[in-house]
Write a structure and sequence with these properties.
The chain has 12 helices and 10 strands. It starts with a strand and ends with a helix. It is globular. 47% of the residues are buried. The strands form 2 sheets. Strands 1-8-7-6-9-10 form a 6-stranded mixed β-sheet. A 4-stranded parallel β-sheet has the order 3-2-4-5, with helices on both faces. β4, α5 (135-142) and β5 (146-152) form a beta-alpha-beta unit. α2 (37-55) crosses α6, α2 packs across α12 (309-328) and α6 (158-172) packs across α7. With 332 residues, it is an alpha/beta fold. Phosphoric acid mono(formamide)ester binds next to α3.
Amino acid sequence: MTLEVLSRPGPIPPAAGSILPARRPRRNVLDLDDFSVAEIEAVLDTATAMKDVLRRPIKKVPTLRGKTLVTLFYEASTRTRVGFEVAAKALGADTVSVAAATSSVTKGESLIDTIRTLQALGADFVVMRHHQAGAPYVVAEEVSASVINAGDGWHAHPTQALLDLFTIRERLGRIGGLRVAIVGDILHSRVARSNLWGLTLMGAEVVLCGPPTLLPVASFCEGLPWKVERTYRLDEALDGADVVMLLRMQLERQTGGLFPSLREYVRTYALTEERLARARPGALVMHPGPMNEGVEIDPRVARGAQSVIEAQVTNGVAVRMALLYLLSGLPA
Ligand code: CP
């Protein structure tokens, strides 16, 4: 199959263009589909200022002193959970970490009862990851605390997409007009979905690449304001790419039979140094992590000069600080 256009440039749809009226501060971050360009730029600009805070000898300001951030995770995480905890502490907030596996969830407590309990205990921010798409939306209806989606099923991972946008803009100076190849297990990827919203809204061209069974149907891209293409051929996706974003093969979400074998996948789709040479000189190599080294990415590429994978993790702290600050509604 050759390159197929799934979505063409057009007017920004109401959902993407309207966001919250400027006068009303945002309370929740559930996905990027209700963000405007101006709001994304405000997050990225604020994150730049937060990076300055993190470069100081004492990496702490009292901005959110007296506030409490609770992380509630029903799935495993390292980067997102720790990133939020470090961000909250750097802003002077208190943090509490709840893992569903060691909470009263194991005694049968419902999500709603759990969330109401956390609010009764004083949570101002609830950062949650859940295996069920849409769970943070249900929670946001129940509590007055700010709810931040740290990943819901296959649906969305907005803070990952924001830190990806920040990293691209920091390294390449812009997002608009860039060509971004997203490669791998797109079907199961909440990172790809949120990045599609963020990248296209900011004017990047996106090409999705993977085996036919792991590439989404056209409806995946419905409503996107900018051009999105897909191809099953990695070389075609890499041609002229400014950014190559690899996705983890999510074997734990697959029920089997989606590609012939892992060896076949590696042979066809793993990003090697030779394949990377097809992208633009200096193209960024990104991965949200955790990586399956030797599956979707060769270890030499993961640690090579073009890789910004560790920078993504570091930038995640500044971006999450920016979000907490902006959600708190404090004056600039
Ligand atoms: N990228 C990401 O969400 O990583 P974690 O699962 O470690 O949080």
